[in-house]
Amino acid sequence: MLNSSGEVLESYVSDVTGRGMQFQAVEAERVIRAGLTESDLLPVSEMVSIMETLDTVRERIGLRYPGE
After folding, report:
1. How far apart are CA 35 and CA 20, in angstroms?
2. Tell me, what's the pLDDT at 4?
3. Can you give the pTM of this predicted structure?
4. What is the mean pLDDT of each run of 10 residues along the chain (68 residues)?
5. Which residues pair with 2 in a beta bridge?
6. Residues 22-29: contacts with CB under 8 Å, at least 24 apart
7. Which of 4, 12, 24, 58 falls 20 to 30 Å from 49 in CA-CA distance?
8. Can you give the pLDDT at residue 34?
9. Max alpha carbon distance in the chain (Å)?
10. DSSP letter at 62?
11. For 24-32, which contacts have Cβ atoms below 8 Å and span 24 or more sequence positions?
């Protein structure tokens, strides 16, 4: 976080390695091994809703990823 003069007031360094998707991969493995069709932690419908919200935010702020 910066103040109005551009001075750093607060910073954050993540200690997560990779893309941060390892938690989703572990849960997907658990669901598949258990023979389930969906996670009880985060239903597919909720995942889709979250992705739609993120897509809307990206569109509104004009964020484009390489290759889009």
Report:
1. 25
2. 87
3. 0.52
4. 85 76 85 93 88 92 86
5. 8
6. none
7. 12
8. 96
9. 56
10. T
11. none
